[in-house]
Amino acid sequence: MTAARTSPASRLIHELKSPLTAIKGLASTGSRLYGSLTDEERRQLFALLNEEADRLVRVLGQTASVLLLDAGEFEYDVRVEPLEPLIREAVKLARPADHPAEVEVEAGLAACCDALRLRETVSAALDNASKYSPPGEHISVRALAEEGAAVIQIVDRGPGLYPTDADLAFERCSGVRPPGYEEVPGVGLSLNVARSHLAAIGGSITLTRPPGGPGTMLTLRIPLETPGVEVPGDG
After folding, report:
1. What is the CATH number for 183?
2. Fewer C-beta neighbours within 10 Å, C or N terminus of the chain?
3. 3-state SS, one letter per residue, for the chain
4. Residue 188 CB neighbour total at 10 angstroms
5. Do residue 65 and residue 82 come from a single domain?
């Protein structure tokens, strides 16, 4: 069964209004009750404010990327980059605290990419993996060279999407979700933006079931090298 579709504009408006409404409510409550709150309650209040602000920043960042891509104004700084530090930074950025991340990167692996955009893409993929799998389940990140490309596989052990929804997940604001996770918030732009970023450097992204089990495997393929791109430090 495929998730009900809503218009991109309606979903975007909802995802912008939701954290703003939460921030407004938390700020109002905190201001009114601040004197009667314990130190722990204040810490919890600020933690919730920070969480909702982070959510708003993510939505705004994805929206800005879409607008720049549509206008043909997105610029890439493409060069050969070592992947292990980039991937490990992405894991820290995503902070999947209740989903232990297992990272395995082939020694010396480098690929031709925009480091900032690839880091954002891997981080967004990890964020999705943590949102759509049960707490405590491991997320694995594996990177290796394969047929002239660097392949990054991000695997979670959630229920996974219905096979018919795998391609829809890359559509802008598609709203598809794994069964049981239909109400998880999200504007549905991260995979669409990731596909555009990877296509711009001659790469690709696919979503499938991992071999031998439930879950989702997101596979990024990135060129190992591109003519005219120099490895920093060479020569």
Report:
1. 3.30.565.10
2. C
3. CCCCCCCHHHHHHHHHHHHHHHHHHHHHHHHHHHHHCCHHHHHHHHHHHHHHHHHHHHHHHHHHHHHHHHCCCCCCCEEEEEHHHHHHHHHHHHCCCCCCEEEEECCCCEEEEEHHHHHHHHHHHHHHHHHCCCCCCCEEEEEEEECCEEEEEEEECCCCCCHHHCCHHHCCCCCCCCCCCCCCCCCCCHHHHHHHHHHHCCCEEEEECCCCCCCEEEEEEEECCCCCCCCCCCC
4. 23
5. no
Domain count, the chain: 2
By residue range, what is the domain housing residue 29? 8-70
pLDDT at 168 exceeding the cut of 90: no
End-to-end CA distance of the chain: 56
- pLDDT tens-digit map of 3-49: 445 677 777 777 788 889 999 999 999 999 999 999 999 999 999 99
Closest C-alpha among 104, 116, 124 to residue 79: 116
Specify whether 193 is located in the same domain as 102: yes
Residue 150, in any domain of the structure? yes
- Dist CA 156 CA 102 (whole Å): 11
Is 157 in contact with 213 (CB distance < 8 Å)? Answer: yes
